[in-house]
Amino acid sequence: MRPATLAARGPAVPVPSRVAHGATRGCSEASDPEHHILSTHVLSNHREDLLMRIGAGMITAYAVIALLAPRLATAEPLPTGLTAEAVQSATTPEQHRAIADAYAKEAEDPRAKAVAHRHMDSSYNEPGYLSSKLGFPRHCRALTQAYETAAKEADGLAKAHQAMADKAARKAK
Known about the structure:
The chain has helices at residues 17-20, 33-73, 84-88, 93-124, 131-134, 136-172; strands spanning 5-6, 13-14. By secondary structure, the chain is mainly alpha-helical. The chain folds into two domains: 1-73, no CATH class; 79-173, Orthogonal Bundle (Helix Hairpins). A two-stranded antiparallel sheet has the order 1-2. The protein is elongated.
């Protein structure tokens, strides 16, 4: 008669005959070396799963921090082509409209990235993807939220400068 084996993951591990025939934990098998091999194999699988989850969570956290760190480093980054001096010295309607247009254009990029990550999130949530266990959907949702926030902030600044342009135009009349 061949000994029973446990082949859940990795190489087959022999199962002691007492365990194969229904012996329970809590018996005097704790001192049995074969029982120790079986319980060590089961525990190593749990440790492996736990380490994978922790690793995926850490990768997600690092990615979010890496994406948000540049935003946090500066008080309020300016769109490409604008300088702090141009924003501070804007007085005419044309200058404020140019600033508003720059912020509106800046909002397009994070909005497009938010849409792309929303689509990736829905793809990762489909049945059969291992990525859901690795935290990819959570990563995509975090990025989607961050990009949408950035786009809303840029839209708000564009609206504020458009209002300043309108006010300056009324004042000039």
